[in-house]
Amino acid sequence: MIDHAVEFLRLGRLVAFPTETVYGLGADATNADAIRRIFAAKGRPPTNPLICHVADESMARRYAKSWPQTASAIARHFWPGPVTIVVPKLESIPFEATAGRDTVGLRAPNHALALELLRAFDKPIAGPSANKSNHVSPTTAQHVRDELGQSVDLILDGGPCKVGIESTVIDLSGEIPTILRLGGVTRAQLESVIGRVEIKTGNVSPDSSAASPGQHPRHYAPKTPARRVDPGELRSISAEDRGFILLNPHRAIGPSMLVVILSNDPVPYARDFYAVLRRLDGLSLREIVIEMPPDQPEWAAIRDRIVRATSS
Ligand code: TXA
Ligand code: MG
Predict the structure, then answer these.
(1) Going by DSSP bridges, is the β-strand pair 103-107/83-88 parallel, antiparallel, or unpaired?
(2) Strands 103-107, 51-53: parallel, antiparallel or unpaired by DSSP?
(3) Of 22, 109, 133, 308, which shows the fewest CB atoms inside 10 Å?
(4) What is the distance between the alpha carbons of residues 228 and 209, in angstroms, rounded to a whole number?
(5) Ligand 1 centroid vs 192 CA: distance in angstroms?
(6) Closest listed residue to residue 122, CA positions, set 9, 1, 4, 16
(7) Which residue in 127, 133, 161 sits closest to 220, CA to CA?
(8) CATH assignment of 2-199?
(9) Residue 177 in contact with ligand 1 by CB distance below 6 A
(10) Nearest 5 degrees, angle CA 68-CA 70-CA 75?
């Protein structure tokens, strides 16, 4: 199967592959035509750069124009794992992959099948999440089939993703290391390795629902209208035709097939969240109501996804 996948990649075709975070829609990161196919299959805006997956730090360095000590430190501590490092790129990564930027996001995924594929291909694999642009990311091979079906040439099934939300993206191309997207590795974990890290994730804050829409674009979103609520607000919402994603059983809602209670622990919550959102999205509900987890650092990436999923 891996040989087959490598052959497809060499031919410039699309291969969906598992990672520990979400499934990726892969193509040869050095082939501009193959990358255009990714953008077409996803309906992705040409301004949004792709993450390029690598087997390890040494492969990353082959495509980075510079590789600061902070990049080495992060790669050594967290790779393979859910953190993407943005550094200046070399010419072998075409501008199609980076949406015209002179930086590239590199990440070694922590999944045996993905690493086997990367080693066999021996080149980086560009891979956005294997969903239509702005929709919920896929955490199983079946999700990829449901979402992209005919436009993928091959789907490698590596079972359900263990982390369940996307990687943290950290930009090391400027003076101050800056998190551009919260994800599987927390700010505190990064700071324990490289010192102070800033966060610039586009001003998405759970409290800023009145801010301009451009500041928190709808992303990671179901097709069904979705709304986030604090636990206290649940009481006043009728259960009729609604699906609920909750952290605790709330007696006020009453028994319903459409109440899903996720874990109070952010790790299993993240693993299950997209699959549950996708399932509820398939039920033709009037609305999906999501209880906001606590405003604590270990929940920050999940709160970010909930805010984006419920922004209009
Ligand atoms: O966990 C993940 O990161 C998954 C798996 C498949 O690896 N991939 C993923 O890719 O989520 P995608 O394309 O859905 O999200 C990539 C994110 C986007 O927010 C993009 O703007 C950012 O990474 N990104 C990629 N390259 C960048 C660059 N050169 N500069 C700034 N941001 C970049
Ligand atoms: Mg995505």
Answers:
(1) antiparallel
(2) parallel
(3) 133
(4) 10
(5) 23
(6) 9
(7) 133
(8) 3.90.870.10
(9) no
(10) 100
* DSSP run (H or E) holding 291: strand 287-291
Spatial separation of the C-alpha atoms in residues 45 and 281, rounded to whole Å: 24
139/160 Cα distance (integer angstroms): 6
Q: Tens digits of per-residue pLDDT, 184-232?
A: 999 999 999 999 999 998 754 544 433 333 334 678 899 999 999 998 8
Q: What is the pLDDT of residues 221-268, one digit of tens each?
A: 999 999 999 988 988 888 888 999 999 887 667 777 689 999 999 999
239 lines ligand 1 (CB under 6 A): no
Give the single-character DSSP code of 155.
E
CB 290 within 8 A of CB 276: no
Give the separation between CA 225 and CA 221, rounded to whole angstroms. Answer: 9
Q: Is there an atom of ligand 1 within 6 Å of 168 CB?
A: no
Measured between alpha carbons, how far is residue 62 from residues 57, 89, 123, 124 in Å?
9, 10, 9, 10
